[in-house]
Amino acid sequence: MTPEIEDAFAAIRSEHGADSISRVERMLEPGGGGPRHPLQKGAKWILPGLSPTPWHDPYAYPELAPVVEALESAHPAVKEELNSAWAARREAFSDYEHYLTRQEDWQALYLYRRGNLVEESADTVPTAYKVLKEFAVDTETICPLLESHFSTLLPGASIAPHCDLWNFSINLHLAVDIPDGCSITVAGRIRSWQEGRCLLFDYSFEHEARNEGSQPRTCLLVDLWHPETTLPERRALVSLVTEIRRLMGE
Predict the structure, then answer these.
(1) Number of domains in the chain
(2) pTM recorded for the entire structure
(3) Less Cβ crowding at N or C end of the chain, within 10 Å?
């Protein structure tokens, strides 16, 4: 660890207790904090002690349920504003750049990125922006290391099987506009989105998606803290990843 990370960790231990970030420290040890599920082998970091569950009930966690309820309630307005933006402000969308690849047939409209709300989206998709700000950003349930965006898969597009970087955040999908022929697979289990409802899954497990329909498929994706992480762990993880990204010139 760098001196900056060591200092940040020491400050957290001083405030919250000697064992408050022990799981984060174990994660950084050789072996990555212990055994992991075979379908998490592609993830960079696995924080030990989190439930190794690919699919989660979106309403199971008191911290996350208000986000889910607000997004689902707002779905009609969110869909209308998204479709208007897709028709009239296509320049607001861009090719999605995953840490593994970039895809022209996977379009993104960002609401939150690099630790901040994307203010331009407040005019483009005001309902989604307002709900995200009030229920995820202001409550600090969103993971500031990641993002929130409308994810549009064009007809015939697919996302190849992959694991994301870690398990200490979790991915929420609001199914905004779902034509026939669309599905997602997480840890070998295939599911379809139900328009107006949310799915929640641990994307450190291998997952993939496809649009075999004739119309674009759009979900609103929100990267939230895994509900089994603690406040001191979240602080330590932000310090850790932020410093690593700084050293890598990101």
Answers:
(1) 2
(2) 0.94
(3) C
